[in-house]
Amino acid sequence: MHGEVEKDDGVMVIRRIRVTYRLKADSEQRETIERVHRMHADKCPVYRTLRGCIDITTELVVEG
Hints:
Layout: E1 2-8, E2 11-24, H1 30-43, H2 45-50, E3 55-63
């Protein structure tokens, strides 16, 4: 996870959060993993709380 901080009237605030999910999985699981990744934000209480205030993006890296 990587956050980007800026100053707003001299106060540091988080503007962007970049999350990288790194998973080890068999190739047969890739379709399911990608489908879950596409829909997980809508079911995540933290994302839904912060989405209007902070730009949050995710990246999925599947190794296997």
